[in-house]
Specification:
The complex is a heterodimer of chains A (370) and B (795). Chain A has eleven helices and ten strands. Chain A has 370 residues and is α+β, with helices and mostly antiparallel strands. The longest helix of chain A is centred in the first third of the chain and has 40 residues. The longest helix of chain B is centred in the middle third of the chain and has 16 residues. Classes of the chains: A alpha+beta (370), B alpha+beta (795).
């Protein structure tokens, strides 16, 4: 047989190989120890040099051609096998992936963090105090001695001292405001240095209807210095609200009012308008289509309160304010039912809550866009 | 406090509109809560004369009127009133007007086929009275064509909220004074008639309680005729939401509402002997004018005669000696009661009244004589009679306060510049006297003013707060310094970690129903004396009940998988019994952990290990040394006894508890199915020791690869895997860097009462790789350590 037709035959059978096994069998048949081409190679040894010179290259070419064909075919068969395997592994990716639960931060917590961030930039530290408070801190020290008519405005929850096994001379109450923290912070400061604090937390009033819950949240603010005036109060509140609502058109209206712990006392209104049926803070309340809404109470710290806090009222003065956190949250993020805040409805929490990663920062803007 | 415009104008000369007055009231701190303008209600009603009245062709009881409205051709109106007749001047509602009594919008309509262009109205239809016998009949000379509101004198009513520091503004005169000071008109002087009396007062008046009632003035008026008070007086009282009763009572109320000065009129015939202000005697009672009987005691001041108590002093009169239509002779009482006494008595009796509200805030002690004079004058004018001389027992505390003031304080406190002359003008207009040295004398009707800051407030308030500029707080140089405390940082970090772990933050009530609180009690509970409801009665000793209730509500709404957490306080006691509010994080996992799935099969419920995972992950976030924590039992009776534990640092310090809820507890909260719970006590987590700066301990990853070796041990079935693991970990601390249980097997090949625990141990070679001898030595140590726990290496 001539080498060429032998080669053609081999290549043909390689091309026809159906799978890797058949291909291996062919390799053995051609190139294995007993293989036909291996056999031809062995014949070279018995040839004369001249004959070898002419026949040798042919046999080598034959071997090389077959080797290459085997390799190519092997690669092709492997590729086809992989393709088939992958085709068999196809999955329906429209099926659902495993779900991971989405957690959330409560809007009240978020807003408290936002306020803490804003006030931190203004140099206010965060102070806290007990919620089960004694009469002195909640009332007397705040210039509301016993029988003061303003106490009646507070709808106070009292602790049943006998049933609670807590016999003290003083009444114990659930704090009706965060203002007792003013006293605690002043006393802790020692009466001889300027003070800037906010005090966020739960407060309690014996009141329950569509817009009042017996528990709600306040942030108290207190600034003590030598020359702090109502003008600083106005700036602080404006600055805080501008940062909080991320709008420059916040307009405040100050109205005289009365709180026993401040003198003069000032009620602060902010202008707003209705946009798509919702209150949106901004603009003057006197502008067309706008109105004023009461936002918070504030004033210059009463001298009796300064004294109770260990500050000499002839040396020191300052301002204080208290604002409802729940209300700020509602105004900013558009909730309309206060009672839902405390129901723990997972659907509501998911809708109005915030991602754990929504950490308020000044660089990113303290708010979270809808 | 409600009052009509005409009432105000009786004391304030002003041309200001209702809007201007309202705006000014708001600006000076007398917040307007509402304005009722009857003219609004009466829009579309006008004075009209019936020209002709003819029988309706189709109805016996109806007439067809021709009505002159003062302009254009007369209108045809159908009317059913029996008194409708030609010549009558009445009130016509034109088409488009809304009938106040029923809200009906009038329109042109056919009444039994006859066109009617409006309606002649009755008193009741216009809400002006009860008269409904027929249509209103006005005097013949009433100006036809005038808007009825204008003719009738529709009087707008202001409703303002008076802050507790302003008893003077609990009378119209005080409000007028404030408005006048603010430039809205002129305050008319009080016109006291100066009635001296024509005979000596026949009643002896004394005060025996000079603490509670330092001054008690009175006089009698003989021969009065009581009965309904005149229309103007009734209208004024109605505007103030007061029910007219009789002239004598109405007059005392009118004086109170005008001057903020309560007084009382007794029917002299019902009194016997001296009338005395004294302390009540325990056991005495008083049937008050509200029809309720009050038990009195010696802490309370009363007005009594020889027969008994007639009046809870300064709060409410007694039924027995109250004035009636038959009253012929009266004794007028005007007294000064001390605010503290009135407040205490009112609180003790739980009795509020207009008089109490004024006395407890402080009435003007200098207004006794003038008040009595005004009262007398009105009674004589309306009821007739003859007044006695005034008897005066005791004296009111008449020490006018003087405040040393400095006009510069207005700028120093208020941050606004107001000229000294303007400050003086404002103070004078408010009744303050300003001396040359700025010593400011406070008028008796301003008990709230007792310091310079109060004077600043008066000046700034009347001047207007608009002028206050915004002045930035001075700020420290550079970037704001951190302000949060370690606890605040911990709370924030945990909150956001928990949310990132798929938990939803809830905020639940701080108070619980008693039963729920008791179920989780640790020692004595804080109980409220006046809870808003039984469900909100006891301060929570644990955050779990609130979250369980929330879970229950969610499941009832169809929620299937709940992961709730809350960070808040538990209200407990410290070792000394003092209040201790402990910051706590609680997690409640209820419903399905994973829903049924194409890949996962059946739905899976939460188990105790889910609770453990949350507890450990959050503790790790909190910086707790989680690898050193001991897992011990005793999570509490609320937990499944075999599937719950505490996580402790040392034997005493419990950082957290977790596990499955006890089925009894779950049932108490109406929860079906397993509930996994974790509670982490944030204040028990040790803080970082010292300020070590930002640089961390040196570390370089080991050059040599770690080696893993598996060990399987047979142990008693009740040996805690954690105990064995700790033993294995500690077997060779130089080499073993980690160990992990990866199998817990019981059954075939494992003897009864035993289990097989498989542990993967990670070894870290230091200088050189392990050889066989090294590995054998370590394995021997592991086996020996395990043997101390009774573990036998499986062959």
């Amino acid at each position: 047989m001539d080498y060429e037709s032998l080669g053609a035959q081999a290549l043909d059978s390689i091309a026809k190989a159906q799978d890797l096994d058949a291909l291996e069998a062919l390799r053995v048949a051609f190139l294995g120890k007993q293989g036909s081409i291996s056999g031809l190679l062995k014949t070279l040894g018995g040839m004369s040099p001249e004959e070898r010179q002419t026949t040798g290259p042919k046999i080598h070419a034959l071997r090389e051609g077959v080797t290459n064909a085997l390799a190519d075919k092997k690669a092709a068969l492997e590729a086809a096998a992989l393709e088939a395997k992958l085709a068999a592994e196809t999955v329906d990716l429209t099926l659902p992936a495993p779900e991971s639960a989405r957690g959330s931060v409560h809007p009240v917590s978020q807003v408290m963090d936002e306020l803490a961030e804003i006030f931190a930039d203004l140099g206010f530290a965060v102070a806290t105090g007990p919620e089960i408070e004694d009469d002195w801190h909640n009332f007397t020290a705040l210039n509301m001695p016993e029988s003061h008519p303003a106490r009646a405005m507070h709808d106070t929850f009292y602790i049943d001292k006998t049933a609670s096994g807590y016999e003290t001379e003083q009444d114990m109450v659930l704090r009706t405001h965060t203002s007792p923290v003013q006293i605690r912070a002043m006393l802790a400061a020692g009466g001889d240095k300027p003070l800037r604090i906010i005090a966020p937390g739960r407060v309690y009033r014996s009141d329950s209807d569509a817009t009042h819950t017996p528990m709600f949240h306040q942030v108290e603010g207190l600034v003590i210095g030598k020359d702090i005036t109502l003008a600083h109060l106005k700036w602080t509140l404006e600055t805080m609200l501008k940062a909080f609502f991320e709008r420059d058109d916040i307009v405040l209206r100050l109205r005289p009012s009365y709180f026993p712990f401040t003198e003069p006392s000032v009620e602060v209104d902010t202008g707003y308008s209705y946009v798509d049926g919702r209150r949106v803070v901004g603009g003057s309340g006197d502008a067309p289509g706008h109105a004023w809404m009461e936002l918070l109470g504030s004033g210059m710290v009463n001298r009796h309160v300064l004294s109770a806090g260990g500050y000499d009222p002839d040396q020191w003065q300052g301002f204080a304010f208290g604002v409802g956190v729940d209300r700020l949250a509602m105004l900013k993020y558009g909730m309309n039912d206060l009672r839902a805040f405390f129901d723990g409805d997972a659907r509501w929490l998911g809708h109005y809550g915030f991602s754990g990663l929504d950490v308020p920062t000044l660089s990113g803007g303290v708010g979270v866009q809808a | 406090m409600k009052f009509s415009l005409s009432w105000l104008k009786a004391h304030l000369e002003t041309e200001a509109t209702v809007e201007q007055i309202a705006g000014k009231l708001n600006a000076i701190g007398l917040e307007v809560e509402g304005i009722e303008d009857p003219a609004e209600k009466l829009r579309g009603f006008r004075v009209a004369r019936i020209l002709t009245a003819d029988r309706h062709p189709n109805a016996d009881k109806l007439q067809v009127l021709s009505v002159d409205t003062g302009e254009g051709a007369p209108l045809q109106v159908v009317c059913g009133a029996p008194n409708a007749r030609a010549g009558l001047v009445g009130v016509l509602g034109l088409p488009g007007a809304v009938v106040p009594a029923n809200g009906m919008v009038l329109k042109v309509a056919a009444v039994r086929s006859v066109e009617s262009n409006g309606m002649m109205c009755s008193m009741r239809e216009l809400e002006l009275g009860e008269g409904h016998d027929g249509i209103i009949e006005l005097p013949e000379d009433a100006p036809v064509g005038t808007a009825f509101a204008e003719y009738h004198g529709a009087d707008p009513v202001f409703d303002i909220s008076v802050t507790p520091n302003r008893p003077d503004c609990m009378g119209v005169y005080g409000i007028a004074r404030d408005l006048a000071a603010a430039g809205l008109g002129f305050l008319k002087p009080i016109a006291a008639p100066g009635i001296a009396g024509s005979y000596a007062c026949p009643v002896e008046i004394r005060t025996e309680d000079t603490d509670g009632c330092p001054a008690f003035y009175g006089r009698t008026i003989k021969g009065v005729k009581n009965g309904p008070s005149p229309e103007w007086l009734q209208a004024a009282l109605k505007a103030a939401d007061q029910r007219p009763i009789s002239a004598l009572v109405d007059i005392t109320n009118y004086v109170m509402l005008t001057y903020g000065r309560p007084a009382h009129a007794y029917d002299l015939a019902k009194l016997s002997g001296a009338v005395v202000a004294r302390r009540a005697v325990a056991g005495e009672q008083c049937l008050a004018l509200n029809g309720k009987t009050y038990d009195l005691n010696e802490s309370m001041t009363v007005i009594a005669d020889a027969a008994g108590v007639h009046d809870i002093a300064g709060i409410m009169g007694g039924e027995h000696s109250g004035c009636s239509d038959d009253t012929a002779d009266v004794l007028l009482e005007i007294a000064y009661f001390t605010p503290e006494r009135i407040a205490a008595t009112g609180r003790a009796l739980n009795l509020t009244s207009d008089a109490r509200a004024r006395f407890e805030r402080g009435v003007d002690p200098a207004f006794l004589d003038t008040g009595l004079d005004l009262l007398t004058g009105l009674i004589l004018e309306i009821c007739g009679g003859e007044a006695s001389e005034v008897v005066r027992a005791g004296a009111a505390p008449a020490t006018p306060k003087t405040v040393a003031f400095d006009p510069a304080l207005v700028t120093k406190l208020g941050g606004v510049e107001i000229a000294g002359d303007e400050q003086k003008r404002i103070l004078a207009a408010l009744g303050f006297t300003v001396g040359d040295d700025w010593a400011v004398t406070v008028p008796g009707w301003r008990p709230d003013v007792d310091g310079a800051a109060d004077i600043v407030e008066e000046v700034v308030r009347i001047h207007g707060l608009d002028g206050i500029e915004s002045v930035p707080l001075p700020r420290e140089d550079g970037v704001a310094k951190p302000t949060a405390t370690p606890v605040q940082k911990l709370e924030r970090r945990l909150r956001r970690s928990a949310a990132a772990r798929g938990l939803n933050e809830a905020i639940t009530w701080s108070f619980l129903p008693e039963g729920e609180a008791e179920h989780f009690a640790e020692g004595v509970l804080w109980r409220l004396a006046n809870p808003i409801s039984e469900d909100l009665k006891v301060m929570r000793p644990s955050l779990i009940p609130g979250l369980l209730s929330a879970a229950k509500r969610n499941l009832a709404r169809g929620g299937s998988s709940l992961r709730l957490f809350e960070i808040g306080r538990r209200y407990l006691r410290d070792a000394n019994g003092k209040g201790a509010e402990r910051l706590t994080l609680a997690v409640v996992l209820a419903g399905d952990k994973t829903p049924r799935g194409w890949a996962t099969g059946k739905a899976q419920a939460f188990d105790a290990f889910d609770a453990k995972a949350e507890a450990l992950a959050l503790l790790a976030e909190a910086g707790a040394p989680v690898d050193n924590l001991q897992i011990m039992g005793e999570a509490g009776a609320q937990f499944h006894p075999g599937q719950s534990a505490t996580l402790r640092l040392g034997p005493k310090n419990v950082l957290a508890r977790f596990g499955m809820l006890h089925p009894t507890t779950a049932k108490a909260f109406d929860l079906d199915g397993p509930v996994a719970v974790a509670e982490i006590f944030l204040d028990a987590i040790p803080g970082k020791k010292g300020a070590s700066g930002f640089a961390r301990v040196n570390y370089a990853p080991p050059a040599l690869q770690a080696v893993k070796r598996d060990f399987a041990f047979l142990v008693k079935a009740d040996l805690a895997a954690g105990d064995l693991l700790r033993a294995v970990k500690g077997a060779d601390k130089a080499n073993i860097i980690a160990a992990r249980v990866f199998d817990d097997f019981r059954g075939q090949g494992v003897p009864e009462g035993q289990k097989s625990l498989a542990i993967e141990v990670t070894l870290q070679p230091a200088e050189k790789s392990y050889n066989d001898a090294d590995l054998k030595a370590i394995a021997d140590k592991v086996t020996a350590a395990a043997a101390k726990q009774g573990a036998v290496l499986r062959g």
